From TrEMBL, chain A:
UniProt-annotated location(s): Cell membrane
Transmembrane region(s): 6-33, 45-62, 68-90, 102-122, 159-179, 208-230, 242-269, 276-297
Signal peptide residues on this chain, from the entry's feature table: none
Name of this chain's protein: Amino acid/amide ABC transporter membrane protein 1, HAAT family
Taxonomic lineage from the root: Bacteria, Pseudomonadati, Pseudomonadota, Alphaproteobacteria, Rhodobacterales
Family: Belongs to the binding-protein-dependent transport system permease family. LivHM subfamily.
Superkingdom of origin organism: Bacteria
Species name: Thalassovita taeanensis
Automatic annotation (TrEMBL), chain B:
Keywords assigned: Amino-acid transport, Signal, Transport
Family annotation (Pfam families): Peripla_BP_6 (PF13458)
Keyword Transport attributed: yes
Protein name: Amino acid/amide ABC transporter substrate-binding protein, HAAT family
């Protein structure tokens, strides 16, 4: 394949990964930003999103499109409610102590993973995409003294992959708007700045925490629902996703939404491009190296602010 | 006063419990002891089944289990082995080499198994076999890997139920070069099993006057594949694919999306779609492509009585899916290996007069002495030739074409097509 079309394909593949990663990592970052909780079980909420999407789509009749829309609405709510319950029954009782919550969420990780294995099983199961048309993409070439359009071999994407990219942008804009312009966003930001002061001003901090933990898990579940028609739902899929979101969040700066999105684009696109041109292993090596450099030279992340 | 009476009553309670305990112990021990007097013939033969119940091999594990349970049931109904019942002792290895070695150790030292059996994934076999050799535990693998016949393992590891990759690709290469094309790009999983494919197919296609123009290794835990496909050289005439793990359906689907309407010829190992329904959305492009099959998943027009018997015993319909759930597609091209291996263990134990773990060496020698296995209910996939020196069996291979969404056999490679010179003589190693 020529360099140009090759690069375009790599960019498209990278953009799909970036969209999913940005959704997931923004959930992780939100939870850390507001609650100062490092949620190790975040990857399992992503997995639960995918697994429940399979479950919902196989329960709901009326064609793949209806079933998928149902999953898109129902699944994040279920997972969010589950996470909020976990927050109220476990994390709250640990008084959000940073070390103990890490251990608690590790426990949560294993519980969710093993319960999925015991009920859903060890198989990878597919979900039918609501629509999936292959789009061959043209490329321009300078020949015979003019620009000519041609259709390179293999340069294509699918409508569903484009939808994932668009959905990622829309959902993240919605999250950003909620944080900036809604009352609940204001409460969250106030809690993030100083939870004691917020409480003193009558903000129900505990309820805000439960809500934030629920929204964070819901975002991961949403990413899971979006990815499952491309990949398949499998009980171990949370591991890699968690690792990548940690990489994204560390590079972007824990707690910074803008940083998370920029880092997701950086990691997603570089993973796509490096694995196409060199090897997927090299892409992982470079991402991990980048984390090391960020931790050494700018521990607060590219967009993070230093802890007060 | 009250204190002394309390302690007195406590003592008497304790002694009462002691007596009760003794009685219970004796009651429990008695039948055991009684059974022991008539031991050797009555105790079941225990076959340790190393099952990929979880991890990337789970789909295979489920069907290896069903096949093995069915074969053991039939063996027991027919009177067992040497008059003793057979019992499967199942342990999950998580499709993980380290855990695999631990499972082997548990079979030998804790659960008193006579032999170990049933491993598929080659990295687990390579991780487990050395421990089986050290413990002198006969280890019957159903793995396809070339590591048995290559001499890499030991005298206690045997593969009598399924052919190895070297034999398979050697039997396929003439068909590929004569019917599909000479310039091949290979896509394979990046571990021992995939490397066997890479090395042996490259050699085999060159012997046929063809060449491999591109090699694309993919980590077996990968979940997204489109990014690998641009490396397929433009001159490619045939794509040769073999993939394993939970992402196989995604792999084949994305391969179709990549090529669209202008695909080259495609030849795959059914491993890329084992346990996957061919009618899954996105697989329509496979129409007219070719697959290697160890055993034809769809019942063919010339289906043998043996194949009918095999399907009925496990509960599989003519499309290779469970009769209870048509979405639950079997790993039909591989699982016959478990069935046939169990019958080889039976034949070996009968020939050796196997009575207990002290006869394990005799069992290995008896299996090494086996030469041919006729096409029968015991060997439903086809007749086999066993090489006692390399511990590897040879059998027929099938090439099927996707016609109307079903795999129809278009070519059967003979046993001889897959033969190659010996690379090891395990019989010279000490037992």
């Amino acid at each position: 394949m020529d360099f140009g079309p090759y690069l375009m394909l790599a960019t498209l593949e990278g953009a799909v990964l970036a969209a999913v990663l940005a959704l997931m990592a923004s959930g992780l970052s939100l939870v850390f930003g507001v609650m100062r909780v490092v949620n190790v079980a975040h990857g399992e909420f992503y997995m639960l999103g995918a697994v429940l999407a399979w479950w919902v789509t196989s329960m709901v009749g009326g064609g793949p499109a209806v079933a998928f829309v149902a999953a898109l609405i129902v699944v994040p709510v279920i997972v969010g409610a589950l996470a909020a319950a976990a927050d109220m029954t476990v994390l709250k009782r640990l008084e959000y102590d940073p070390e103990r919550t890490i251990v608690a969420t590790i426990g949560l990780l294993y519980i969710l993973q093993q319960v999925t294995l015991m009920t859903y099983g060890a198989d990878a199961r597919p979900v039918v995409p609501p629509f999936n048309t292959r789009l061959a993409l043209p490329w321009l070439e300078w020949s015979d003294g003019g620009l000519h359009m041609f259709w390179p071999w293999g340069l294509s994407t699918t409508t569903y992959k484009l939808f994932v990219i668009v959905a990622g942008i829309v959902i993240l804009s919605a999250v950003w708007a909620m944080m900036r312009h809604s009352r609940i966003g204001l409460l969250m930001r106030a809690t993030q700045l100083d939870s004691e002061m917020a409480q003193a001003f009558g903000i129900p901090v505990e309820r805000v925490y439960a809500l934030v933990f629920g929204i964070g898990a819901g975002l991961a579940a949403l990413a899971g629902v979006l990815i499952v028609p491309i990949q398949q739902a499998h009980y171990l899929m949370g591991g890699d996703a968690l690792l990548l979101s940690f990489i994204v969040v560390i590079i972007g700066g824990l707690g910074s939404l803008a940083g998370t999105i920029v880092a997701a684009l950086l990691i997603g696109l570089s993973d796509g491009i490096i694995s196409v041109f060199f090897s997927p292993t090299l892409a992982k090596i470079i991402a991990t190296l980048l984390v090391a450099f960020v931790l050494v030279f700018r521990p607060q992340g590219l967009f993070g602010t230093r802890d007060r | 006063m009250s204190k002394s009476s309390e302690s007195k009553s406590a003592v008497s309670r304790r002694s009462a419990l002691k007596t009760l305990g003794l009685g219970a112990g004796a009651a429990a021990a008695l039948p055991l002891w009684a059974r022991y007097s008539s031991a050797e013939t009555a105790a079941p033969i225990r076959i340790g089944f190393q099952k990929h119940a979880t991890g990337i091999g789970a789909a295979y594990g489920r069907w290896y289990d069903r096949t093995s349970q069915a074969a053991v049931r039939l063996i027991n109904e027919a009177g067992g082995i040497n008059g003793r019942m057979v019992e499967l002792v199942t342990e999950d290895d998580g499709t993980d080499p380290k855990r695999g070695a631990e499972v082997i150790e548990k079979f030998a030292t804790q659960s008193n198994c006579d032999v170990a059996f049933g491993t598929l994934f080659s990295h687990v076999v390579v991780g487990s076999a050395p421990r089986a050799g050290e413990l002198k535990l006969p280890y019957f693998v159903v793995s396809e890997g070339h590591h048995v016949a290559s001499g890499m393992l030991n005298r206690y590891t045997v593969q009598p139920g399924i052919t190895d990759v070297k034999s398979q690709v050697q039997a396929m290469a003439p068909f590929v070069s004569q019917n599909l094309g000479k310039k091949v790009t290979m896509i394979f999983p990046d571990y021992a099993f995939g490397h066997d494919h890479r090395d042996f197919f490259t050699a085999a296609i060159e012997a046929q006057g063809g060449e491999v123009v591109g090699l694309i290794p993919i980590p077996p835990t990968e979940t997204s594949f489109t990014k690998y496909f641009p490396k397929i050289p433009r001159e490619t005439e045939v794509i040769y694919h073999v993939m394993v793990g939970p992402g196989v359906l995604t792999f084949v689907k994305e391969l179709g999306e990549f090529f669209g309407p202008s695909r080259p010829e495609i030849f795959g190992f059914i491993d890329s779609l084992e346990a996957v329904d061919l009618a899954s959305p996105g697989l329509e492009f496979l129409e007219g492509t070719y697959f290697w099959e160890g055993n034809p998943r769809y019942a063919q027009p010339d289906q043998t009585e043996y194949d009918k018997h095999f399907r009925a015993a496990i509960g599989i319909d003519e499309n290779g899916a469970s009769i209870n759930d048509s979405k639950d597609v079997s790993t039909y091209a591989h699982m016959f290996g478990c069935w046939e291996t169990l019958y080889v263990i039976k034949a070996g134990m009968e020939a050796a007069g196997y009575a207990g773990p002290q006869d394990r060496a005799k069992l290995i020698e008896a299996v090494e002495a086996i030469t041919t296995m006729p096409h029968s209910n015991e060997h439903p996939q086809g007749a086999k030739v066993f090489n006692g020196k390399t511990h590897q069996v040879f059998g027929p291979q099938y090439i099927s074409k996707v016609v109307d969404g079903k795999l129809m056999v278009v070519h059967t490679a003979s046993i001889e097509d897959g033969m190659y010179p010996d690379e090891v003589d395990y019989t010279t190693q000490a037992l």
